[in-house]
Amino acid sequence: MADQTNHVLDTILQLMCEGIVIVDVHGMITELNEAYARFLGIQREQALHRHVTEVIQNTRLHKVLQSGVAEKGQIQIIHGHEMLVHRIPVLREDVVMGAIGLVIFQGVNEQYQMMDRIHQLTLSSTREKTPPSVDSPTTLRSFDAVIGHSTEMMALKKMSMRVAQTSMTVLITGESGTGKELFARAIHSESPFAKGPFIDINCAAIPEHLLESELFGYEEGAFTGAKKGGKTGKFEAAHTGTLFLDELGDMPLTMQAKLLRVLEDHSVVRVGGIKKHPVTLRVIAATHRNISDMVAKGEFREDLYFRLSTMHIQIPPLRYRKSDIPTLVHYYIEQLSTRLQVPKKRLDDRTMQVFYDYAWPGNIRELVNVIEVILEMMEGCIVYPEDFPEFIKKKLMSPDVQKESEQSPYIENNITLKGQRIHGDREIILAALQQARGNKVVAARLLGIHRSTLYLKLKQLGL
Ligand SMILES: Nc1ncnc2c1ncn2[C@@H]1O[C@H](COP(=O)(O)OP(=O)(O)OP(=O)(O)O)[C@@H](O)[C@H]1O
Questions:
Q1: CA separation for the pair 168, 88 (Å, rounded)
Q2: Residue 62 backbone dihedrals phi, psi, to 5 degrees
Q3: Which residues contact 272 (CB under 8 A, 6 or more apart)?
Q4: 365 CB less than 6 Å from ligand 1?
Q5: Taking the CA atoms of the chain, what radius of gyration do you get in angstroms?
Q6: Most exposed among 148, 213, 352, 453, judged by the fewest C-beta atoms under 10 Å?
């Protein structure tokens, strides 16, 4: 029975995502689990029967053996990472028999949590003072759901938030999966139209002969098979809200002319009718196609392009803003683990590099799908490069990979974004200190980190 219990305990120990080290009364390591060994970059067996101070940097477990007092929630720097640790003495009848060290691998993620907190702060300070619409479907549809701290994304979010407050027509372009719909929904939910509906229509998915009646509706008897009483179209359905015209680049030229008329008239005439139905709404159009090229080729009406592109949001592909990858990866691992009801996973040191090296032709949609596949398929609690789908591993061996990861040619407000990267921690910390009026304790709280971590970061950054 005792054997079986030991076996079960040992299995739990090895499966745990946290690092565990157990020392005897002399400070000699009697147990160190796989997660900890991997973090330290050693074989588990190499650590056993050695003094804890020889194996673990900045440990205080030997001190806990002397004091017999638990040290919970301390920050310990191990291999350059700030880790949250608990050190617990093992007592039998008040006599110290040994000690257990528990490392929460939160330190590694702390930077991302910190960035997210600051991101929230930045958003709330840039937003208009008006409270968000009470009946906006969910906060996850607002800009809070748009993850990314790269210079490009921060600039886009800032610009979109400003646009949201107006009633301007917006054109959003970007490759498939870059978040065009996400931006459209965020603009809607933070706009004066937020109380109205968000209606979307995919112009590429609807056959040409049906698109007109889908958009503008029809009157009774407009065509064979028309419903009694007629039907309202998407424009009328979106009245007081937002109409999202997805894949606008696939809209036939004849329909483009009709769309332009509605945008200029602010009213629709249903198919088979003559009456004008006034509509108040915002139109957001999106496409993955290069509309100005299409205009040059005569495939897209120039007048409609000019009408739509007064506010043009260009979302860069993920490969041109790789600094967003860690935040996105951590965010989606967290989100998807909860949704899939799987234990939280940790990344092996080499794994983030794979996320970086791959070019993500399907952009964030592909990234999300890959994380979902990994979480569903893998066993254990650490994600290794081997856990990636085969097609990614193969692609990474191809010589084109480097080329695909070159710097962004994207230009914003006529200023090239190249070389203008925010200097990470420094900017974030300065923003928090400013917000906290120089009070470091408050700044640390705003950042969601321990104040000792903040002091350390200030020192490292020479602030
Ligand atoms: N910045 C982001 N932060 C978090 N999630 C994102 C971000 N951008 C995109 N996503 C997610 O990626 C997926 C694809 O996004 P979305 O549908 O908005 O892309 P799209 O550009 O409209 O794609 P398509 O052109 O194929 O319609 C969604 O699950 C979305 O939530």
A1: 60
A2: -65, -30
A3: 218, 219, 220, 221, 222, 223, 226, 230
A4: yes
A5: 28
A6: 352
What one-letter code names the amino acid at 272?
A: G
Q: Tell the residue number behind the tokens 């009406």, with chain if given.
A: 301
**Alpha-carbon gap, residue 356 to 359, rounded angstroms:** 8
Please give the distance of CA 115 from its chain centroid, rounded to a whole number.
Answer: 11
pTM of the model: 0.62
Centre of ligand 1 to C-alpha 366, Å, is: 9
SS3 204: coil
CA of 328 to the centre of ligand 1 (A): 12
Whether residue 164 contacts residue 187, with contact meaning beta carbons closer than 8 Å, is answered with yes
Question: In the structure encoding, which two tokens stand for residue 402, read together?
Answer: 């480097």
Q: What element of type H or E holds 20?
A: strand 19-24
- Kindly report, residue by residue over 249-306, the tens digit of the pLDDT: 999 999 999 999 999 999 999 988 888 999 999 999 999 999 999 999 999 999 999 9
Check if 364 has its Cβ closer than 6 Å to any atom of ligand 1: yes
Distance 214 CA to ligand 1 centre (A): 25
Supply the DSSP symbol for 171: E
